[in-house]
């Protein structure tokens, strides 16, 4: 028997690889167009680092007129978590990161789920067997255990390589007999590598790296007929026309194997861009942001607490590209899409992921929103997560006025980082407990003095038709009449001459009307509350 007959015995129904080469045509894209992909395994929720990978993949494809694909890598079916693939897709959708092609957007290079591509991998494995570049291996787990023990006692590297490869040189007839007799087997790659030699890998992020050649005869098709991750990576990225692979740097040690697979299969290898993991401070030391320990590692977390997707992405872009912050300063109003992303500006070492900084970014992002945008996003969020906020927002016309306070001007309010902050930031505009006498009045605390200030203000000065300047002048007149300074600095220069300053007076009015000593602009608040409500509150 020859190797072609062996290949036919193993994969009698597999098609010729020319069928697939013909079916999946070279993409008709212009020079320099990048075809990228995000390739999650459906083993749980999407890590925030995965969102960053997807964002980079999308950005590079868009920027170069290429394509961005999402491929579900579910060949390890034991680790698969039910529904995870759908959840990952939904999560990408929540971040506006849906690709050009995926299980949700069938393109011409599908299926986009590896478990549905079994016949494709088998065809390529068959072609390798025909050429003597792959072989069936009958080693049981006990055999492999034995090899390992022998290697350990001989103080040699572990694995299936070189002289330890029991089945590599098995005569074809013997292999065929075993197969016919029903012995279980898998297919291994016959590695041509020599680890004494180095390969030069030129990474788009990490630069030049020397790595030892691979000599492991890795499994390419498992006993369930599905490929291993490595083999599927080579076949899929080739057939899907991917030319840039951005992924986590934990895959760097596999690069020699991957390049060898591409080469042996006769494929052009993609460019690799390996990104460092996100880090977190724990006490004095840094560690990887962990799915197990850190809620913020879960990409779904941000939707739950209501950080706008735009803010999450801005923050990730901050981490990803060192020059983004500068660009944002120079272009405060441009959409992030216009930022020219550059792989060369990616950090080689892991960046710190800092939730507090992300929330700062979110405050800025939300400060640029119009009242209508705040309303729409917050309403959507509240529908799912906050019944009480939803109740407030049901009054749309009034809510738009409330949300318009200190918005759309040169110094917009920046106190909201996430929709879960919103209720507390605006609730006093809707409900007010007049009986509550325990407000923090700060400087002026004497109830008689407070009553006097409030009474005089509303009897003598308050006129809802006043413009802002008049309103403010009147506040000063009131201060003066009661023995407080008109300006803060007058008081500071001569504290004994006054009972306090105009700010103390306006705080009394503020607290009386809102129950809080810190709010956005009091004039605007009073305009929105309106006379009737104001009088009710006092
Ligand atoms: N499925 C692999 C993972 O989830 C993808 C690695 C790659 O992007 O090549 O880590």
Give your account of this protein's structure.
The protein is built from 22 helices and eleven strands. The protein is elongated, with a radius of gyration of 33 Å. The longest helix is centred in the first third of the chain and has 17 residues, at 48-64. The N and C termini lie far apart (99 Å). By secondary structure, it is mainly alpha-helical. The structure holds glutamic acid (GLU). Glutamic acid is lined by residues 39-41, 73, 229, 233, 245, 247, 251.
Radius of gyration: 33 Å
Low-confidence stretches: none
The amount of helix comes to 40-55%
CATH topology descriptor of the domain at 3-15 and 119-275 = Rossmann fold
What share of the residues does DSSP label as strand, in percent? Answer: 5-15%
